Amino acid sequence: MNKTLKRYFVKSVIVLAIIHLIYFLYGYFTFQGLKNIDNRTEFYRFKFYDDVSISHFFVSGLFLFFFLIFLIRNHSRENYKGRNLLKISGCLLFISFLTFSFFVSYSFGMNAKLKSELSENDFNNDKKLLNVLNPFLYAYTSYTSEKLFNYENILYPKPYPVIKEVDTIVPGEFPITETNYYSIDTIRALTSTFDKTTSKADSIFDIIGFDKEELHKRVISKRIVGDSTEIIFKSVSVRPEHDEDICIFVENKSLFKPIHGDSIEKQQYNVAVDRYKLLYNAKKDSLTYTFQKLDTLLRKFNIETRLVPKELSKDVYHYRDNHDEPLNAIRNVFDRKTLVEKFTALDRLFYNPNYLHPNIIGIYFAVIFSVWIILFLFYLLFNKKKAQ
After folding, report:
1. DSSP letter string over 4-50?
2. Mean per-residue pLDDT of the chain
3. CA triple 243-244-247, angle to 5 deg
């Protein structure tokens, strides 16, 4: 390729870059904001019927029309062959791609605006707040669910978590059962050391008449990790129903929305610790202040709410201190469905953005390659005229 043709390609790319910048800014300034995000919100996917698609069609068509005219008029009939033609075809393919990807820049503009209004760090902090407060946010009928609220969900303080064991005292058609809870403990040791210790322990148990089978029944799992052995077993008996520092709100370990990239188990434990401290160690004003932060969060995302932090705090403390009273009323009224949809949409926009929808990928690349072939064939046609 001569310098004149190279400059023409560079100028064309600069023009396309400017158009891409315009579409980026268009996406940035037309983003409707956090309050309008819902489960249907997505980044642009060339829908063929809105202003971006229509303008894209005309801008792309006009650019290619004038690009081809000036290419043939000023830069053809050079009788390029072999390597030069390969370079020219590569440039034409790149220009074809840039010409049909303005909507991608529009999508990046929307993404940039979203993250200027809500940084990933702030988004994670909002999630953490909702995760800590999640057990306070259920509709009151959910508090009777044994699946959502049970002693086995308690992760903090020690000796929790626990495992439930139901023993049959009297068998038969109407058996009598007894429920026991045991704390879960872990032993880790080098496998060689563990084997030696186990054999010695078995000898001692035989001498003193200790039931080894009973001990083995307490083992929940045993596994080899590298050169170590890890045993998880049932330890001391626990009576959570008589524990004054345990209430229904610590019997749920569900996360509202996990923070992306962090261990679920670690998050569950950390928020359980924060929740317990908020209920039992912090000043009462701390819980009210935390509910005020929740109210602010709901209003930031335009979630309909009737929360009154002081009243909700009173309800929480009432049911914290009255274990045996069924939880049949708690003043935590807000639009739960919209909040879930909003954060599900934000998760998708942050971590799985669709800049090019799967439904049009085939059509999109077919158009790019078709236009590239047409441009290249036109150039070949006029490139060879000089040799005739």
Report:
1. HHHHHHHHHHHHHHHHHHHHHHHHHHH---GGG--TT-------SSS
2. 85
3. 85
